[in-house]
Amino acid sequence: MAGKPSAIDHPALDHGEKLSGDVEITQTETLQIDSVEIKRLLRKIDLRLLPLLTVLYVLSFMDRSNIGNARVAGMNVDLALTGPQYNMALTVFFFPYALFEVPSNVILKMMRPSRWMCVLVITWGTVLTLQGIVKTYEQLLVTRILLGVAEAGFFPAATYILTTWYCRWEYQTRVAIFFSAASLAGSFSGLLAFGIQHMEGVAGLGGWRWIFILEGILTVLIGVIIPWALPDSPETASFLTQEEKTILIHRLRQDAGTQARGDSSEKFQWKHFRAAFVDYRIYLGVIMYWGNSICIYAFSFAAPNIIRQLGYSAANAQLLTIPIYLVGAIATYGLAKISDRRKARWPFVIIPFCISGVGLIALLSIQHPRLPGLTYAFLFCIPAGLYPAVIGCISWVSNNLAPSWKRAIGMAVLMTLGSFGGAVGANIFLDEQAPRYPLAYGMSLGVVVAGMCAAMALRFAVDWTNAKRDAIPESEIRAKYTEEELHEMGDSSPLFRYVK
């Protein structure tokens, strides 16, 4: 090969090991793979994983938030919903959505990921379709609860699956590619809703009903292909050669200075379950996550209505959400790419939070409904800051969790507690406070500042722990512990280094 061999990504093994899926590395084998070969392998994986996850996340975010588009298209009028009833319909989604995330990731680890993802996607698509035929407020609540149950497992599953394929400084860019779909979902949902609401009266149904029905059917159709389209693990991937499996699995196992990250065949142990629930780093991550979830869910539900109150028609309000979310998508990918390249996480949580903070301060200061153009301009700061920040948070926490069972459960714990922020966000844009919304913008600013403080606390905690471990000679560690013991210790291993 023309490229330079990478001794970091593919160091020689100092002992033999047998990997699942008939992938074996012998005691004397040295993996000398150049950087061009590594890039080629990663591209191959990217093309197989990321397009499908991106499409699924677009559907996931769109299917939970399109109720905001349906409201503008006449849902509240047809169902005779009051402001508090609409807010309750938003809120009830988040409780089952949060509570079922940990059980879902446990199931994911116990069965083929592709099959579990298929079940999740088909189920929530079916529920969304049924949401289009509800007749009463109570029926709407039931469908929103069931939608929360069905969608709960997707995001923690998708973010965990990526950790089984990519090393730590490759991870955030990949998550950003499919997570930026959340921004694209906002713009695509607005464009789709703009077109679908013109189906008013077709088959005797309102245009808002067709938003739910057509988007639900699309979700089900895509869900059906998942078992054939989504690979389950590097060990069993049919699109990889045996040599590629060997390279990929070995570099995952060596990524953190310990073999605790890459073993997807690891057996469940209760100690890993307990470890995930008592790790204070996860709870600092939860505070950062709230800085996103409270604000962004509030914004995604309210954005079409906020824009309409600036003097635009309902249809134009749908369209004007599109550029706001597109800017969020571009910012998410761009900052993630820099974060991986700089091998740093904390600055790329703090900086985006600062961007959204500036926007929130401006929105609190403007005397609405005066200066509608200026108000609209500062709305761009919300997704442009919040989406990159939450990606930085998720990547940072997942990078620092090992072994794989603790990582799967820990990421679900992060998202379980973090997702409760959505229930708060669903209730802070109060109709009686329109168009200034002091509670919504003020609370959003407060949790963004809290997220910044949590990021700084985690940064110093990581520095302190790594410094303690750096002071212990590796020879002393290996004399004290066997390889199996170091593996079992996961991120508690003195060989494990936290990223910051």
From TrEMBL:
SUPFAM superfamilies: MFS general substrate transporter. InterPro entries: MFS, MFS_dom, MFS_trans_sf. The keyword Transport applies. Signal peptide: none annotated. The chain crosses the membrane at residues 87-108, 115-134, 140-163, 175-196, 208-230, 282-303, 315-336, 348-368, 374-397, 409-429, 441-462. The keyword Transmembrane helix applies. It is found in: Membrane. It comes from the Eukaryota. Gene3D superfamilies: MFS general substrate transporter like domains. Keywords: Membrane, Transmembrane, Transmembrane helix, Transport. It is a multi-pass membrane protein. It holds the Pfam family MFS_1. One of its GO terms (cellular component) is membrane. One of its GO terms (molecular function) is transmembrane transporter activity. Residues 49-469 form the Major facilitator superfamily (MFS) profile domain. This is Major facilitator superfamily (MFS) profile domain-containing protein.
